[in-house]
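Need a sequence for this fold. Nothing fancy.
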């Protein structure tokens, strides 16, 4: 387990009064950083990706809900754009659940935490969803989503072992699927280096179209201006008793696969209607 960064310990070392004066909540989310994220994210949201929503009214206005979405692009822009859009349009913060590896990257982990990221652990999700009534965002494909080659885009990978379904069941909240089109073309992967990934101890090491067009430095930070479309599907609620430690594995897997199939069909439908990668 990585050691915490010094900046994460400062409120504790400074004492409880300093912690109360801080704008950082118990999850590490900072309103100052969120203000900065909104300032940076708004031009990308409005003018670069030109995000459009369908069915945003299906996201609950109150109470906990587990948002799930397909994930794409070597360095995915879908998560911050979903979080930005819901916060701006609905006035609700969204906590993004990220895997432990991502949060362990020096500097990146702390910044993601300050912007609303939380370690993807069932106990954290349960507290956010059931105890605090928050919105949490998770990507069931995991790293398999953004590591797909351009030739494999929009083909959803298996949703793990359905852990997101069990989390929603335990917390007694709905799953709200979001189908995302556009993110995969914003940083499409042409090649993955397995040897490089092993050497650097990262899940995958991509060579993208952005690298080819812009070079290794700019290509790692500048997205292609693909048009983003988000479609919110009907919330999925589970007729089970919340708060149990375990739920039938067959029921969990069946529900996860049904949601995956629905999202896959929706993606194919959205792609069939899309006239242009860049203009929608």
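Here you go.
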């Amino acid at each position: 387990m990585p050691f915490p960064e010094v900046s994460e310990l400062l409120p504790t070392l400074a004492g409880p009064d300093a912690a109360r004066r801080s704008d950082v909540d118990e999850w590490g989310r900072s309103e100052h950083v969120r203000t900065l994220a909104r300032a940076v994210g708004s031009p990308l949201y409005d003018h670069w990706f030109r995000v459009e929503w369908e069915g945003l009214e299906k996201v609950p206005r109150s109470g906990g809900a587990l948002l799930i979405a397909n994930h794409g692009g070597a360095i995915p822009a879908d998560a911050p754009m979903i979080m930005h859009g819901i916060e701006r349009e609905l006035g609700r913060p969204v906590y993004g659940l990220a895997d432990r590896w991502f949060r362990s990257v020096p500097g990146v982990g702390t910044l993601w935490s300050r912007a609303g990221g939380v370690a993807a652990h069932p106990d954290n999700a349960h507290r956010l969803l059931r105890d605090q009534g928050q919105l949490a965002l998770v990507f069931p494909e995991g790293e398999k989503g953004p590591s797909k080659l351009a030739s494999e885009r929009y083909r959803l990978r298996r949703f793990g072992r359905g852990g997101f379904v069990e989390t929603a069941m335990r917390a007694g909240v709905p799953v709200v699927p979001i189908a995302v089109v556009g993110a995969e073309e914003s940083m499409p992967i042409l090649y993955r280096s397995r040897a490089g990934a092993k050497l650097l101890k990262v899940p995958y090491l991509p060579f993208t179209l952005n690298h080819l067009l812009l070079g290794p430095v700019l290509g790692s930070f500048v997205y292609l201006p693909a048009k983003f479309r988000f479609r919110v599907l009907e919330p999925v609620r589970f007729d089970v008793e919340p708060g149990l430690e375990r739920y039938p594995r067959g029921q969990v897997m069946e529900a996860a696969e049904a949601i995956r199939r629905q999202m896959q069909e929706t993606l194919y439908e959205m792609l069939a209607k899309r006239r242009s990668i860049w203009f929608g």
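For context: The radius of gyration is 19 Å.
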